[in-house]
Amino acid sequence: MQLKLDALEAHLAKGLKGLYVVHGDEHLLAHEACDRIRAAARANGFTDRTVFTVERGFDWSALIGAKQSMSLFGDRQLIELRIPTGKPGKEGADALKTLAEADNPDVVTLVTLPRVDGATQKSGWFTALIGAGVALKIDPVERAQLPMWVGQRLAQQGQRVAPGEDGRRALVFIAERVEGNLLAAHQEIRKLGLLYPQGVLSFEQIHDAVLNVARYDVFKLNEAMLTGDVGRLARMLDGLKGEGEAAVLVLWALVEEVRTLLRIKRGVAAGKPLATLLRENRVWGPRERLIGPALSRVTDEALEKALSLAARLDRQVKGLSDSTGKRGSEPPPDPWAGMFELAMAIAHGGQPAQAASAPRQRR
User: Fold this and answer.
1) Which among 309, 338, 340, 341 has a CA at the least distance from the CA of 326?
2) For 363, which DSSP code?
3) Running DSSP on this structure, what letter comes out for residue 214?
4) 162 in Cβ contact with 204 (< 8 Å)
5) Looking at residue 363, what is its pLDDT?
6) Beta strands at 19-23 and 107-113: parallel, antiparallel or unpaired
7) N or C, which end of the chain is more exposed by having fewer CB within 10 Å?
8) Are 216 and 239 in contact, with CB atoms under 8 Å apart?
9) 245 CB neighbour count, 10 Å cutoff
10) Domain boundaries in the chain?
11) Residue 126: CA atoms inside 13 Å, Cβ hemisphere, count?
12) In whole angstroms, what is the distance from residue 338 CA to residue 343 CA?
């Protein structure tokens, strides 16, 4: 049985099931979901708790034995099984199938996994678990939804932003400061609850209280490029530079996106369906929705020029001299400024940007 996260409270109010599977990489939301299940288990008399973590050499028979036996003191028990890698192996897969089949009314089992890929979702052990119990897929909060999520969390502690543009600006401000770090967003929201009473929060109050706790993710750069969000692109590159991220890794991520766009664009021109090309190029999730508009915005010529710039930047970040022999085609002296120029080829379809500047120089 698949269950949405926002339906968990109503589900638990109707009674506990014997098996729960929580999977996803959004640690804050996964932790909160598990806490709700634990609290419901305690409230229903499952007071004895045993935790198993799957590591190298894990004894799967101990897990099965715990599932089938009574607690030492006769209490009903909650068994937690944590599989950090999401890969139980052959022995573990067989044990999980047995676990799914075991029916003990005095035991509630909670299995936690990271994000599960498509192949794993079709595996025998995973389908056995969700067939016998309740599965909660913890999806990340997309950046576009983050301001609304922040507003909902503020409401839970009796606070809200001002109506209209000031309130929207305040929510966007928080979202920008905690980009890629939902736990940090939670901490900042809790801090606002401690600093200010319930009621309306002004932008000035939020600005003074919220720290810049963004955790910039090099693999999120593609979203900013594909959407043409120049401000976010400049902010993320500046943040990655300030955090000491390796320039060669950032360049690789940008170049992979350019190459993917060029392959897909040429495939579409050759008459292949876009859906097929997306699948062949391993494009899914938020990128799948963003590729189409980006393809219509950027030209083949702009993509080819971007790859030419990328080749020169690659030599630059590796400390090699440019042997192309082309005068006037050198990248900017700072490779981060060059990577901003490269990213702008996608964000603005090869046209120069008027409303953004390259990442700041840091001393």
Assistant:
1) 309
2) -
3) -
4) no
5) 41
6) parallel
7) C
8) yes
9) 17
10) 2-137, 143-209, 218-347
11) 23
12) 9
Calpha distance 104→166 (Å, rounded)? 55
Q: Residue 111's pLDDT is what? A: 95
Any idea which architecture 218-347 has in CATH?
Up-down Bundle (1.20)
Residues in a beta bridge with 49: 78
Which single residue is written with the structure tokens 């638990």? 12
Could you say which DSSP state residue 285 is in? Answer: T
Buried b / exposed e along 276-313 (16+ C-beta atoms within 10 A):
ebbeebebeebbeebbeebbebbeeebbebbeebbebb
Residues 6+ apart with CB under 8 A from 101: 128, 132
Inter-residue contact 12 to 36 (CB < 8 Å): yes
pTM above 0.85?
no
Residue labelled with tokens 């573990």: 92
Please tell me the class of the 143-209 domain. Answer: mainly alpha
* Spatial separation of the C-alpha atoms in residues 158 and 193, rounded to whole Å: 8
Q: What is the model's pLDDT at position 181? A: 80
The single-letter code of the amino acid at 221 is L
Q: Which residues of the chain have pLDDT under 50?
A: 325-328, 352-357, 361-363
Name residue, tokens 């440019």. 322
Provide the β-strand partners of residue 78: 49, 108
The three-class DSSP label of residue 356 is: coil
Q: What is the C-alpha radius of gyration for the chain, rounded to an integer number of angstroms? A: 25
Superfamily of domain 2-137: P-loop containing nucleotide triphosphate hydrolases (3.40.50.300)
Please give the pLDDT value at position 327. Answer: 44
Q: Decide: 347 and 229 in contact? Cβ < 8 Å.
A: yes
- Under 8 Å between Cβ of 222 and 257: yes
Residue 35 DSSP SS3: helix
Say what the pLDDT of residue 350 is. 56
3-class secondary structure, 193:
helix
Q: How many degrees, rounded to 5, is the angle at CA 358 between CA 357 and CA 361?
A: 120
pLDDT score, position 34: 94
Q: How many CB atoms lie within 10 A of CB 163?
A: 9
